[in-house]
Fold this sequence. Notes:
By secondary structure, this protein is mainly α. The chain has one domain (3-62). The protein is 81% helix and 0% strand. The chain has 4 helices and no strands. The chain is globular. Residues 3, 6, 29, 33, 35-36 line the site of zinc ion (ZN).
Amino acid sequence: MTCRETVRLICEYLEGRLSPSVAAVVSRHLECCANCHLVLEAAQQTLDVYFDDHPDVQKIRVA
Ligand SMILES: [Zn+2]
């Protein structure tokens, strides 16, 4: 798994949309790659801020 592929999958990884085998490969890469780990943390914070500021997002999505 290359860094480019990992970064592209990070959003789906955080949303739990990857298959378990792909998620495991991404997870392994993130553990040993500082650059991708930074991207993961930034993406995680972005999602946290987004959902904190928009409590209705989940409801809208389901509806
Ligand atoms: Zn990487």
